[in-house]
């Protein structure tokens, strides 16, 4: 059986043009402990008492593999392995055609057929692995992000790096790679090395009308990456040093009403500060926004959440509550309003990139809340409150900005 499998692999490789460098020499050894580090091993029998094949890369076409792959050992370094019945990582029905395993050794679970259906023949015609489920399933490092069509969305002065009127996102993956997500499910790779940075964006800071990105490095230096207007970033400029003492910072739009986007920061003593933007990528002398932020977990600028014409801020606290701080249009806030009574402590990240859901209130900004795995979108009502959240579970091991 084994030479047949390898011959079929080589033939399929020639036909579809992928490189079958991963096929290891036949290993007559038995036992999971013979699977080399860095490889994904498939055994002929469930008890691993049979020869194995070891693979170092994804297999797009292992057909016709009429072997059940009764036992596998994922030593690839990927946290998940996915095996498909059809070739090319395709599936017609996830219940019948695909199964996913956590790392380690074991017997792949048989696909559970949907009600009334017969399970497919036990084939394993393609498989690959990844650090996250989305990498395993889609082969992509980034998540599917769909923010509605741009025709219905009014362009807000933030949340739109490429200026098409449609909300977009930046996603940083576990390995420090950064992607621009355009809102139509597409991702553009922006580069690696971002893991040491704290990132934030909210509108234009340089005066060219294109949204920019702020980044603080491990040494506490704040950098500005000017947006190019197409989702990519230009050469960074140095804003200043000494930002390590800030627990949180984020551009918040024009909070003081002079026409330039501003920056807000919370220090470790619970004080909030406003750094007025000068419209050229720098900031003037800071002004106090008051004490009493010591219990704040995180905050983000939402744009005008309550419809009074002034940009607002929302902040979560250590007891899990969510507050709206209504901007007063001249550099301060009105009395804060409780808009979430509990559970918000599970989201390390809050973010607003505009109106991304087509419901409740047209053109009202929605709030994104990110936990370790999930991204939940809370629809803005346009009256300063939020509707019920919608969860998307395909955002593990990544951050959004
Ligand atoms: Ca956009
Ligand atoms: Ca700019
Ligand atoms: Ca301003
Ligand atoms: Ca407002």
Automatic annotation (TrEMBL):
SUPFAM superfamilies, alphabetically? Answer: Integrin alpha N-terminal domain (SSF69318)
Q: Which UniProt keywords apply?
A: Signal
Membrane-crossing residue ranges in chain numbering: none
Is-annotated flag, keyword Repressor?
Answer: no
Q: Where is this region: Disordered?
A: 106-126
Entry annotated with the keyword Signal: yes
The name under which this protein is listed is VCBS repeat-containing protein
């Amino acid at each position: 059986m084994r030479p047949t499998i390898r011959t079929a692999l080589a033939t399929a490789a020639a036909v579809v043009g992928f490189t079958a460098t991963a096929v290891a020499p036949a290993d007559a050894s038995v036992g999971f402990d013979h699977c080399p580090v860095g490889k994904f091993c498939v055994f002929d029998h469930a008890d691993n008492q049979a020869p194995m094949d070891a693979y170092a890369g994804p297999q797009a076409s292992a057909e016709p593999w009429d072997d059940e792959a009764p036992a596998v050992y994922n030593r690839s370094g990927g946290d998940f392995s996915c095996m498909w019945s059809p070739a090319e990582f395709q599936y017609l029905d996830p219940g019948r055609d695909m199964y996913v395993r956590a790392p380690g050794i074991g017997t792949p679970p048989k696909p559970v057929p949907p009600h009334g259906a017969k399970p497919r023949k036990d084939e394993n015609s393609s498989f690959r692995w990844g650090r996250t489920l989305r990498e395993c399933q889609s082969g992509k490092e980034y998540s599917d992000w769909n923010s509605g069509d741009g025709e219905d969305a009014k362009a807000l002065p933030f949340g739109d790096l490429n200026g098409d009127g449609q909300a977009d996102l930046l996603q940083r993956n576990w390995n420090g790679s950064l992607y621009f997500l355009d809102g139509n499910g597409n991702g553009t790779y922006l580069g690696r090395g971002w893991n040491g940075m704290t990132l934030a964006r909210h509108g234009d800071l340089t005066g060219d009308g294109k949204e920019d990105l702020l980044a603080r490095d491990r040494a506490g230096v704040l950098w500005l990456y000017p947006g190019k207007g197409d989702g990519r970033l230009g050469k960074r400029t140095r804003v200043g040093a000494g930002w390590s003492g800030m627990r949180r910072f984020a551009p918040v739009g024009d909070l003081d009403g002079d026409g330039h986007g501003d920056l807000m920061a919370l220090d470790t003593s619970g004080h909030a500060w406003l750094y007025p933007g000068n419209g050229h990528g720098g900031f003037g002398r800071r002004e106090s926004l008051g004490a009493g932020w010591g219990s704040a977990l995180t905050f983000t600028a939402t744009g005008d959440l309550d419809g009074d014409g002034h940009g607002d801020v929302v902040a979560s606290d250590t007891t899990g509550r969510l507050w709206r701080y209504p901007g007063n249009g001249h550099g301060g806030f009105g009395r804060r309003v409780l808009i979430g009574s509990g559970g918000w402590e599970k989201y390390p990240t809050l973010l607003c990139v505009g109106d991304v859901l087509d419901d409740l209130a047209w053109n009202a900004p929605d709030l994104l809340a990110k936990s370790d795995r999930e991204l939940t979108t809370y629809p803005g009502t346009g009256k300063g409150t939020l509707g019920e959240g919608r969860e998307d579970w395909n955002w593990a091991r990544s951050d959004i900005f």
